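re: that chain from earlier
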Amino acid sequence: MVLCGFVTAAHAAQPADLRPVTAPAGPLFRLDEYRGGKPLALQDQRGKIVLLHFFATYCEPCRPEMASLNLFLKANADKPFAVFAVDVGEIDLRVRAFFEKDPVDFPIVLDRDRKISRAWGVYALPTTIVLDEKLQPKLIVEGDLDWSHPDVLKKLETLLPARSNPVPRTGGLKNKREERTMDRREFLKGTAAVSLAATLPSAAWAAYNLTPGKWNTFDVTTRIEIAKPGKGMQAWVPLPSINNAEWFRVIGNTWKSNGRTLKRTEPKYRADMVHIAWADNQTAPFVEVVSRVAMRDRQIDPTKKRAAAALNANERKLYLTGTDLIPVTGIVKETSDKITKGAKTDIEKVQLIYNWVVENSARNPKTRGCGIGDIAAMLKTGDLTGKCADLNALFVGLTRAAGVPARDVYGLRVAPSKFGYKSLGAGSANVTRAQHCRAEAYIANVGWIPVDPADVRKVVLEEPPGNLAINDPKVVAARAALLGSWEGNWLAYNFAHDVQLPGTNQPKLGFLMYPQAQVASLLLDCLEPDQMKYTITSKELPSA
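^ sequence. v structure.
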């Protein structure tokens, strides 16, 4: 699975892939130990041959490699080898839960903001950089390696200082689980206490009235340039793929490039994209995509029946089934059942889940991009913080687990909020970092209902003066409106999950909301537009 910024290796590494380092060393650093202990410093490992290992618990090949590294240290306890492992960009509780289940005997530290991994030039997981006794990088391997292979040991032994005495390893982790309990009663607080009337107060509707009105038309331009050209250059630009007569229309897409371009459609969710491939000798690769779209405010009263197309069997199955990051069994199902206990109708289930997410989650400004959306990990750790791809995915998963079709809608804010909400609109014509996903739930005889609990939590955190109370009038208004309404200042890309990019063997994307690019078989960091060198701009066109 690819999560923006890092790619998990598609193939296991071989001993021959453990190659000399050509880049300079990154900085020495001190990071927090994952269990909340005192910070650990890389420089304390001086005098040993250090395997500086970058990983993440969501990275499939990273998991067995942890065991391989642990066995390597035990088998070579008489040699001055050490492993110093750096978790990249994950929440503390998730890392703790992982190593409680599968403990290791070497230090684990947390690169929460990914500054250290980027400073060391790490963009694939797992990556291991082998440092000599002076902490200078000598070897590197991208991908999971069998550290028990004799050829691997031979390469590492060439770095051992002459006549070195065995150095005992110290400072490793104790091989036991930490005990941690969760108060489930507190965790599931308030799940059945809020009525539908409390969700839709009339005063709030008056303050944030998203009644459908005139259509507004925008040109949204995405431009990618490959800053450091190389072999195997490709890019994928999402296109708006949703047409709905009530709130969103795609007028057309055009593009130009000095590479080969082809419109591709992801088969499961029908998500459109432009796929670009450049010749290896292209020195200034670029692509520019212009999408012309029209949009307007959307409002549906979820308690009133109306003419709405019924879902066919395939559609219903698609939007009730779990995805890689949004399962509908296990803890997700258990939590959903507790939240919706006593609900008699689908709309009651939707309302209870919406309110539960609003009341029990929080927006985390430190979450990178729009988040990951790994809802099982959120529920298991009890850390219900994140951004839109986390919080709205939580709504979608809990709703599906309750037997109600639901889906994420991935898109981009393209204009300010006309209602004065600074937190719910684009701040300028440059919308490169304005990605936002929303959600929908399907109610028979009503249709797809727009919802956005993540934006309620965004108002709480970011709306001036900031850190508003849940009963602040601005929050109350947003909470009321965002079960049944969306503001029409947002472009809708697609509903897609687990996306396999065409023309590459990269692991699947969790979702397709950002432009993607690849050079020399490595996916560039889509959350670093300056590094990947892409911009997205929005321009509203005059009314006809």
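The longest strand covers residues 216-225.
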